[in-house]
Amino acid sequence: MASEHIRNRQLGTVIRDRRLAAEYTLARLATETGLSQSFLSQLENGRTNTSLRSLQLIADALSTTATALLAAADDTAPAAVVRAADDTALPQTEPGAGTVRSLVHGDRDLRALEFTGGTDRGDRDFVHRSDEIIHVIRGRISLIAEGTEHDLGAGDTYYCRAGEKHRWWAHSPDTTTLVLAVADGRTVKRASRI
Hints:
The longest helix is centred in the first third of the chain and has 20 residues, at 2-21. The chain is globular and about 45 Å long. The chain contains five helices and nine strands; from the N terminus they run αααααβββββββββ. A hairpin with a 7-residue loop joins strand 2 (99-102) and strand 3. It has helices at residues 2-21, 26-33, 37-44, 52-61, 66-73; strands spanning 89-90, 99-102, 110-116, 132-138, 140-145, 148-153, 157-160, 166-170, 176-182. The model has no long low-confidence stretch (mean pLDDT 84). The protein starts with a helix and ends in a 12-residue tail after the last strand. By secondary structure, the chain is of the alpha+beta class. The strands form two sheets. It has a six-stranded antiparallel β-sheet, with no helix packed on it. Strands 6-5-8 form a three-stranded antiparallel β-sheet, with no helix packed on it. The protein is 28% helix and 25% strand.
């Protein structure tokens, strides 16, 4: 698929540029992430895709976030409308990882991601610099925040404060979860009075 190849190449270029800016060699990035140097080279050259989990490992090593890398790789002009048919999904290669689709084109102040599935519990807690909202559209998720587990069903929302350790997973592959957050380094804007 041509659009997937272009997206892989754009993401690979962003990762390579961030790696070089951090003065990391491929070998050092491989050591920091636990990913193979061969895989990282193929990723940077657009010859393979990555799972969100691997992208998060890369982002952690480069002191950024997976969503920031994805936004930087999205050269689509910011648009007010993202159509359901728009190809904004990040292919997932790991069993139980589910899929993630960006609901925002380009580098914007807000991030919006739609997760489908994602039944793998994982062992990684997330901590973000900005608040985020985790909303279950369909199905059920389990969410652990600051050591307390919450069971959330369709229509339920969890407000996650900046700096709050959390992780979540879906109960079934058809679960759909929406995550909204202010992009790293951004602030909430308010319209000035006219």
